[in-house]
Amino acid sequence: MLEELKEKVFKANLDLVKQNLVIFTWGNVSGIDREKGLVVIKPSGVDYDVMKASDMVVVDLESGKVVEGDLNPSSDTPTHLVLYKAFPNIQGVVHTHSTYATAFAQAGRDIPNIGTTHADYFYKDIPCTRDMTEAEVKGNYELETGNVIVDEILNIRKINPDHTPAVLVKNHGPFSWGTSPDNAVYNAKVMEQCAKMAFVAFSVNPNLTMNPLLVEKHYMRKHGPNAYYGQKGQKH
Amino acid sequence: MLEELKEKVFKANLDLVKQNLVIFTWGNVSGIDREKGLVVIKPSGVDYDVMKASDMVVVDLESGKVVEGDLNPSSDTPTHLVLYKAFPNIQGVVHTHSTYATAFAQAGRDIPNIGTTHADYFYKDIPCTRDMTEAEVKGNYELETGNVIVDEILNIRKINPDHTPAVLVKNHGPFSWGTSPDNAVYNAKVMEQCAKMAFVAFSVNPNLTMNPLLVEKHYMRKHGPNAYYGQKGQKH
Amino acid sequence: MLEELKEKVFKANLDLVKQNLVIFTWGNVSGIDREKGLVVIKPSGVDYDVMKASDMVVVDLESGKVVEGDLNPSSDTPTHLVLYKAFPNIQGVVHTHSTYATAFAQAGRDIPNIGTTHADYFYKDIPCTRDMTEAEVKGNYELETGNVIVDEILNIRKINPDHTPAVLVKNHGPFSWGTSPDNAVYNAKVMEQCAKMAFVAFSVNPNLTMNPLLVEKHYMRKHGPNAYYGQKGQKH
Amino acid sequence: MLEELKEKVFKANLDLVKQNLVIFTWGNVSGIDREKGLVVIKPSGVDYDVMKASDMVVVDLESGKVVEGDLNPSSDTPTHLVLYKAFPNIQGVVHTHSTYATAFAQAGRDIPNIGTTHADYFYKDIPCTRDMTEAEVKGNYELETGNVIVDEILNIRKINPDHTPAVLVKNHGPFSWGTSPDNAVYNAKVMEQCAKMAFVAFSVNPNLTMNPLLVEKHYMRKHGPNAYYGQKGQKH
Fold it and tell me: Membrane-crossing residues (chains A, B, C, D) (predicted)?
């Protein structure tokens, strides 16, 4: 069942290790088959070096129930499902505890758009969510984490999730998404690199300024209707 | 004698190198057989790349005397023994000079619980001990180092060592422990990663705040009576 | 056509990866045949691990038109061409988003000449350009990026580009050049290392001072008429 | 001639690369045969990956003249010779531009003894030299660099060079020495690690304090007349 998607999700999970975004089992990637309404996700707490494609767990998008798989799905599965429901164009979701992005989440600060590296992939600042309430933490915590993300992106910041495909959960860590499981991992790596550079940049100049003209230019050069970066037919 | 435990302790010592927690010979791992009252520990000052499982030294828990082994045990052995006596549930102890945890020890600052990465493994801040006195330093130094750790954990902070399995010795470096030699190394790695992220987080926002609800939630999600992270029967 | 130069440019692009100066496709190297008035450059958005020497694109220095190659040249090609025209002695140009140099560009700060590591290769501070104007960003952006660099180097700072072979484009990242594609990559690596050390040095002492006598001495020891570093006939 | 020493010096130079203390050709190691009054040193500006043991250059300690070797000796040779003459017990000298130690040199700050990692190998703060004068820089620069080091260690700070085997040359970088070429490389690595940890520690707590009792205890535990670290007969 969904062998091709399982293979993609499995490989995207291994890429988290290759890209130095996770240690131990601290990350998870999922992918979705929107026609069938099924999500494929990494099992919970399984070491990356013994994990197989067939260990991936298939979960129903609506009910959250396991449809196939012997292992428990990632404990973050309810968060992934909320994101898939709220952001209808996304095809993959990633969660990590990558060093610099997580540090910004712990600091409660957005990763600001202060350079073209950021603007090439994220149109706006990557927002950090508000504190979760007692009801949210003591209730269905992982599902409420998803709700807090969606509230921050769509209502509080009014951000288009397709143009700024990442978020920081305060005192927790980053989530990213994309047009495929692979693309969500790519965005997780860009976010981590942008967080690292922002840390250094603010240390070197706490009063730095961004030229707002570059935000528009760089994002549109790659993603706008007249994009001219890369080769014809290539997606970014 | 204790071949299986020697093998475990030997491999855990090599893992310190793999996890980038030590350079040269700057670290040591021990394990305990509580029934026999014997501790197995790395020899002092031996290079990791020539060390063999049979080089591990067996020491008597009560007397501290070498029971088996041709080499001197780690000079930190008396510290390990104090920890095994004071914390009756622990099965492994680790000492390193890992970069970021040692820097916090040099700074005389606790590694604060400011995110779920920390709260997943350490219930409280990882405490930094007080300055050692002249009597302690000039007396049985390594044994007194253990006493200062135990005093800090049990008396000054009133911390449960099973729930916060690590400490910083001021101007020295980190010690960690756990349910096995392997688990103590795991906790040493988590502590180092948390120290690195705390360094970055405070640089980015010196006035950051932790949501206290997450401390409870994340620790209990993994370690509480109703833990639901990972696979059934799996320990964390 | 220009097979030898293509090979050099191809290898110099791979060296960006080896030197940890780029992730993904975030960098480009070009080289020039000044007699023929032709520039060889990396194609746009092609992964380093599938790229071949024959993928390099040949572009006319004056018109900017593709003379040979099936792929689109790097979107930064117009910037490279402006630099080749304005700096008549340079034979290679490099652009990266390397971590520390890019952070200084985001901070809007020059990489200051505060040590002999810098002075061995760059006579002056590596300047950061002014903000680009609306006309420049909305016009022929990549060409105007080149013009802003040249304006900063030659007019605003009055720097000899052969003696200080690098620049930071504000809120964007570093460009470097040199006596060959290889030498331009070498200068990109030195710039990155100098940026990293400057970040640490200013964190450790915000009021640090440079001994100006060392600037003169070290640059001239390697590059002056009486240079005595290295072996006879060796270039630096 | 001196084949064994050449082999040792050659391997110690390669260790600089393995220990991540140098990039390109930015470092050099020498060793001495005190009976013969001859110093063996790395040639100037030769890549580490093509260098052979037979490329090492033999220089006369007193005259500084090349006694054997087809290549120019390191341009820093006169500095090495001054150190061998002033510090009669040392058998190896190392110079690098390692990242964190060089940043402290650029900052004009000593690497302070703030932890047992430092105290295990360096009894005092690693001192940073004063600014060199015009006469020193424009005169026999590399020899005067050595004189400035010796003046700082012996006269200004009154440090025993055998107990604190390293120095920072202001706005330049670190030198270290030891009981062999290998031991000098070891000390270079410890210095770099201590500089990195001091950078982090001061960022985390600018007002940190060192317990002076630990300085005495840790240095003497390894190097004093009653040293008890390591195995019998082992040197540290």
Answer: none
